[in-house]
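Standup notes, protein team

Yesterday: finished cleaning the Pelomonas parva set.
Today: SGNH/GDSL hydrolase family protein structure.
Blockers: none.

Input for SGNH/GDSL hydrolase family protein:
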Amino acid sequence: MPMDHLACFTPADLTGRTPPDLGAFRWRLLAQGDSWFSNSRDKLNAHANLLQELVFRSPVAAINCAGTGNALSHMVDLESSPEFVRLLSGPGAPLWDGVLLSVGGNDLIAAARTPAHHGSGEPIPLQLRLLRHQTEWGPPSAGVARYFSEPGWVTYSDYLRANVKHLLSLRDQGPSAGKPVFMHCYAVPMPRPAGAENGTDLGAGPWLYPALKAYGVPAADWAAVSRLMVFHLALLLKGMAADKENFPSLFVFDSTAVPLALATPGSTGISGDWHNEIHLNHSGCFKIARAWSEAIELVLEGKHLIQPTTGRKGRGSSSSNS
C-alpha cells in the first residue's frame, strides 16, 4: 500500500494567504519539541528532522510549533511557547486527533553536563546532577552505575513527570481533551568530539563528551554510561505511559528498540546513523520514524497494542505502551 509522508505546516501557515486545507487529511496532529523536531533552517541544513520521515497509510497533517525559532531546551519551556499552548488549549483552539512531542532529551543532556562544583569551588549536591565526581564513585562491582547519581535521577524524574502531567492538563483544558499524546524515547548516542556546525539550544557541542571527560570517567566506559542514562529515560517515559491514572492517553514509543548504526568512537563528524554526537542524520531518522509511524497509526486507528512488541525488524520494531 502506498505511504504518505506526514504533511508538516507551521502556525504561520494557518494564517497565511493560502492556509492548508486541514479537512483534506484523515488525521490532524499538533507537534512541539526539541531539535529532533525543529523546522529551523540551520537545523534542517545540519541534521534531519524526525517528523520529515513519518509516513502513514492515510493522509496526515501536523502543525509543527518547533518552527523556525529555538527548539525546546527544557520541558518547562512548553509554557513559554505561546503558539503551541494557544493551538492546544487556547480560545478557539482546533480539535486535534493527537499531539506529537519530542521532549526530555535536552533536559537529560543538561543534567549530565551539570558540573560537580560551582565556579567558586563549592560542591553541587548529588541530587542536582547526574554524574559523580571521582571521589564519589561507587565500588567497581557496581559497573558503570558507580558513576551515576541516583539522587540526581530522582530529581530529574520528578521534574519530568511534573512537566508531562502539566502538558496533559493543558491538553485536557481544550477541545482535544483525552486525545492521544505521542512521545518518543531517544536513541543512545556515542560520546565523541562531534559538535553542531550551526549551534543548538545547548551550545555548539559536543555535549556528553566534555562532561564525561570533566568527571574523569574512563573512555572505555563512555558508551555504557550514555546507554545507562538513555535507558533510564526510556524506562521513565514508558512507566508514565503505563500509569493511565496519572498520565491518561499518553503513548511512548521505545526508540531504543530500533537498531541503529553506532557512531565510531572518537569520530568528529557524520558517522553511522548520527550527524553529530546527539543528533541523528537522515538514515537514523528514517529508521526510527518508520517504526514510530506504525505505532502512532495503530493508536489513531484504535488498534494499539496492549503489550509492547520488540525484536522485529524495520517498521515492526516499534513498541507502544497502551
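Follow-up from PR in the comments: The beta strands are 4-5, 7-9, 27-33, 55-56, 60-64, 98-102, 181-184, 250-253.
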